[in-house]
Amino acid sequence: MTAYTLRPVGHVESTLTDRATAPRQPDEGAPDAWLVFDDRYAPALEGLTPGTDVLLLTWLDRADRRTLTVRPRGDAGRPLTGVFATRAPDRPNPIGLHTVRLLAVVGTRVHVRNLEALAGTPILDVKPLLTPDR
User: Fold this and answer.
1) pLDDT tens digits along 71-81
2) Residue 120 and residue 48: Cα distance in Å, rounded?
3) Cα angle at 108 between 45 and 19, to 5 degrees?
4) Cα(134)–Cα(121) distance, integer angstroms
5) CA distances (Å), 89 to each of 12, 17, 134, in order?
């Protein structure tokens, strides 16, 4: 198989530091956070405006890439399920997918609502969330 190189464009600043106690989903108590981009990507932030919803792609750098099956939500009563059928962070390519609302854009820092990513999580990309009216 072909290998690909990903280059983080920034990192997450958050009050979340412990994976064991972090919310699993944004609607489970995820705090607001800051996306901090490397200065060289400042032009890429042009057009991001507060109130916009975006898809944030992160690299879940603390994930176990050998994991192929999990018990969803860590519930021992649930059957083993392949990670591709779950949102488990442990997976062969631990890419995080987050829908966040932009609260502010200040230079190369973007304030977002309800992000369940841990402090220091590398940012791979940001894309606008497409809606029916686009």
Assistant:
1) 988 788 999 99
2) 22
3) 100
4) 29
5) 16, 15, 30
